[in-house]
Request: fold
Amino acid sequence: MPWRETSVMEERLRFVARLLEGEGMSDVCRDFGISRKTGYKIFNRYRDQDLQPLQG
Reply:
């Protein structure tokens, strides 16, 4: 099975989707290999300004 290629935007959307489904920030950040600080930054950008800041 070949590796799946994803963009940063796709990864951030997957990250946010898991949080919106009710998973905990610590668990999701651990799975994505990012700090909680970065996780909250991504999630707050999504929440405050919808999808625009996640694009870059």
